[in-house]
């Protein structure tokens, strides 16, 4: 059973810690590089728990609505990269929107709590995979940066650049006065 308040506390913890946010972005980069979002409903997943950082593993749990189960083939793809994937059913406790007096919890002014069925996918990813993907990403960015700087315009101050630059057209000689 998952509580909405626990999810909010988890997200708050992520934003308070630069390390957790960086690890979560690297975790997502791996999912993106492995083309997980090609499989149906993988984009709709919401973070429930994590990242939980162990010595060799990073664990995150995501949830989906009961009617939009993520494609299990995506989880199978992660298994090929030594990730551990567990899929299961659970419920999330959410407060009911108050529309009538029956929607209020007795003795309070808060809405009753409803249980909504969901799918939960827990992914344990090796840190080595995350670091390999990060290294590849970093090399790709450096290569693009070097290519962008090498395309920059040549410096016109150097003698080679002046010789390569086209000369300005000479002014046409003026016609003598009185001639047409």
- How many strands, what sense, and barrel or not for the largest sheet? 5 strands, mixed
Number of helices: 5
Helix content: 25-40%
| Strand composition percent | 25-35%
Computed CA radius of gyration, to the nearest angstrom? 30 Å
- What strand order characterises the main sheet? 1-4-5-3-2
Order of helices and strands: EHHEEHEEHH
Distance between the termini: 100 Å
Please tally the β strands and state the result: 5
Secondary structural class = alpha+beta
Regions with little confidence, pLDDT below 50 for 5+ residues:
none
In round numbers, the mean pLDDT is: 86
Write down the overall geometry.
Answer: elongated
Keywords:
180 residues, elongated, 5 helices, alpha+beta
What does this structure look like?
The protein has 180 residues and is an alpha+beta fold. The protein has a domain at 2-97 and 108-132. 37% of the residues lie in helices and 25% in strands. The chain has helices spanning 4-16, 18-33, 72-79, 127-150, 159-164, and strands spanning 2-3, 46-53, 57-65, 84-95, 113-126. The chain has a 5-stranded mixed β-sheet. Strand 2 (46-53) and strand 3 (57-65) form a beta hairpin. Helix 1 (4-16) packs across helix 2 (18-33) and helix 2 packs across helix 4. The longest helix has 24 residues, at 127-150. The mean pLDDT is 86.
């Amino acid at each position: 059973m998952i509580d909405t308040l626990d999810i909010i506390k988890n997200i708050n913890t992520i934003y308070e810690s630069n390390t957790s946010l960086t690890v979560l972005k690297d975790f997502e980069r791996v999912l993106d590089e492995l083309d997980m979002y090609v499989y149906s409903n993988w984009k709709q997943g919401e973070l429930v728990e994590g990242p939980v950082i162990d010595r060799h593993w990073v664990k995150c749990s995501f949830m989906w609505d009961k009617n939009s189960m993520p494609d299990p083939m995506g989880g199978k793809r992660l298994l090929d990269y030594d990730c551990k994937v567990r899929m299961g059913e659970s419920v999330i406790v959410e407060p009911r929107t108050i529309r009538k007096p029956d929607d209020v919890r007795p003795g309070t002014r808060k809405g009753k709590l409803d249980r909504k069925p969901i799918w939960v996918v827990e992914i344990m990813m090796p840190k080595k995979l995350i670091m390999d993907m990060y290294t590849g990403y970093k090399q790709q960015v450096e290569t693009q940066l070097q290519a962008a700087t090498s395309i920059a315009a040549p410096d016109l101050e150097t003698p080679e650049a002046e010789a390569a630059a086209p000369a300005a057209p000479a002014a046409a000689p003026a016609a003598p006065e009185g001639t047409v």
